[in-house]
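Recall from the previous lesson that a structure prediction takes nothing but the amino acid sequence as input. Here we apply that procedure to Amino acid transporter from Novosphingobium capsulatum. The sequence below is the only information supplied.
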Amino acid sequence: MADGAGTGAGLQGRLGFWHLIGYGLALIAPSAPLNTLGVVWGKAHGLIALSYLLGGLCMAFTATSYAVMVREVRNAGSLYGFARAALGPFAGFMGGWMILLDYLLIPSLVYVIMAVALGQLMPGVDRAVWIVALLAFTTVVNWFGIRSTSVFNAVSVISQIAITVLLVGAGIVFLGPEQAFSPAPVWADPLPWRGVLAGTSVCVLSFLGFDAVSTLAEDTADRSGRTLGRAILAVLALATVFFGLSTWVLGNAMVGRHFASLEAAHYDVAGMLLGGWARPALAWFTALMVGFTNALPMQVGVARVLYAMGRDGQVPGAFARLHPRHNTPWVAMLATTGLSLVVALAFRDALDFLATLVNFGALTGFALLHVCVFVHFRKSARRNLALHVVSPVVGLAVIAAILTGMGAWALLLGCGWLVLGLAWWQGAARHAPPPASDLAYSV
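The prediction returns the following tokens.
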């Protein structure tokens, strides 16, 4: 097994199981279904709860592969570290490069979402002003270390759960218990599978984020990987149950309703269940609390991937520098923050386009993860047919199905990022000396 401790001082292992749960739930965001409530409801022909349950099942295969690999390769590089150990330096670099596309762009995407929401509430302020102000705040919080981020995550997660529970409770009171849990959002006869799968393809995006828990391998007190693996699976399980129950009730509240805009349907539902005051209140909550919840942990995750790659000589070594007092990879954090700022400002009026690029980076990274599991255990006496063969193969099939439904521009630009990575490897990364963290691992 590979332990990416590296040489000299490294990240301090302080986080426990519940810190990791808070981090993962913060990144997924317990209120995530609210933002896509109308879109999924429309695509799935009202079967919104079924779509979310299927989305959680689809991601379970990827979560299982992450849980398997964090016990084998324990460093801050996540997919980069897994691929480097199982497939070699080139695959490791490309895995890190592709997942960077996801990690680098998600903060930008979140900043744009927050700016759009705040722009609707205060239309006189340009989106660029909101992006700069919000990004500055998240950088300050993360600068002072991972534990300060964990505290903010806990407050944010609890707040999101409270808001969602409030809406669900109001839905039960408004509809009555029997109608609130009628089978309409879960089952229909005949079942419109094409619509349900279309809804599931959107729902899957709400689950993205559990994977970033693996970037905290060197911040975790238990360095065996067991706690980290349990946390990854627990985060996905909790999110699936919570998403399924909340969309079941809210989906029933939407039956027979007409919405002028499916993208803003959750504001209409909130107003219907709680009164007119709930619409602007939910908009403020989404713009501030939910946005910060996603931006803060993603800024942490991308900095740690770049830190690991810098430590191994795959990118300039300056990215591996840790702050002497706060023990944070400050150079990597500032560099990725600057890039997020540029991307957010450039695409502040092209939210959909930015989202498609995020999806490409995540899904191609997940595909490589499944290959890592299959190869790592192919000759191992510890090989488990279900965990190490069936699960990654099914996971690859799910990812392939989702990728085929992506737009041509997303695939073209995603492949452009891939080509850029190949060029960097040929010019610099492959000539780096083998790092001390490349320890032999047993299979």
